[in-house]
């Protein structure tokens, strides 16, 4: 039986999962790594520590599965997106800690770009809003602030990559410097319509082309791992950014299929087929994972505070002692009693994009209790996700109707939340049997390139729902609650 190893490199930990031919997880290993905060708003990772923990988990997952490297058909990589590494091609040493996607140090440069009137052109080429979230301004910062970096970069001595490129380079012993289209599309340097790096944007941001990796489809035989690392050479044949990998792992291969990941934040993506839709409702356009050379796109919306609102209930409000208690506390009342909670602790993300918004609780009465607030907090996750899907439906129009929403991430195990989500959206919410969809997407992409699976139709047949949540409330019920949510958002942004 062929097996595929997925490397799932996240923001706080490195994981590795072995999948079998049925797409079922066989063994997993995970290790956390250090978060560095040198200044307020700055976030860094040690790229070498990421490499060490990722390699260790790969070795450990193989051992737990009772497998050797020769039993693997392929390796797939999925990764935290946008995080930026710059390293020396000769020594393999990073010239600076990796600048994490959360880091805001390059916001002054973003402000300059917006003030100079470049935002619309950048959006037209990349599908992205000008924000410090993306890699381009992080790389520009490194070239400006690391002594000698610009001259070395122009001389071809340095290599830039998102974390996938860094892991690929290390796995292949420095032989391969490449990325896939999904990660490239998150750099703010990639023309998603041409499928190539943009000379215009490279010139604008003063970034030498010599530092850039080659861009390949997401399912592609990038190279073989060094035999000494795992015990034998293994093809590295799939790469995708974490959210695009999750979309693929959820079997969303066609236009109109959508998934939502409920984590600390929430990430909703809808496949738009071969067309890159320009959003007019606060979303971004991005490259989806590409199983072939044919272009594939998605609309994406991000919620800043999803499951993190539960942490606030625990640590800020002291309403619960552990996050596990929130479902029971919220279920102890039949509804929120008119309380609406907008958790805009760090502003509001898509589709609002309001950095000045602040957390707001409306609808309090003498009868309101901590249970009502807890319920409103949990429901806020569904309200924010509903706003994303409404934006996607508005952008897609009648040509791309969303018939269902597939879900994953930690909070998707909350049955009450998923039912509320279905009632708000008016479409079924489907939770899969395999919830490790990010790693599964990477495994699928790698397995496609090496013949483990014959095509996306075979993969679609492997996807199975563990539970389906059908809407149980009439549209008028949903409309009333969405109106109350919209009113509360106005209060939070006033």
Helicity, in percent?
25-40%
* Strands in their spatial order, largest beta sheet: 17-18-16-15-21-22-23
CATH topology of the largest domain: Nucleotidyltransferase, domain 5
SS element count, helices: 17
State the CATH architecture of the largest domain: 2-Layer Sandwich
Low-confidence stretches: none
Bin the strand percentage. Answer: 15-25%
Q: What is the CATH superfamily of the largest domain?
A: ATPase, nucleotide binding domain
What is the CATH level 1 assignment of the largest domain? Answer: Alpha Beta
* Distance N to C terminus: 59 Å
When the domains are counted, the total is 2
Can you give a write-up of this model?
The chain is an alpha+beta fold and 494 residues long. It has two domains: 3-233, 2-Layer Sandwich (Nucleotidyltransferase, domain 5); 251-432 and 464-494, ATPase, nucleotide binding domain (Nucleotidyltransferase, domain 5, 2-Layer Sandwich). It has 17 helices and 23 strands. The strands form seven sheets. It has a seven-stranded mixed β-sheet, sandwiched between helices. The protein has a six-stranded mixed β-sheet with strand order 3-2-1-5-14-13, with helices on both faces. A two-stranded antiparallel sheet has the order 4-7.
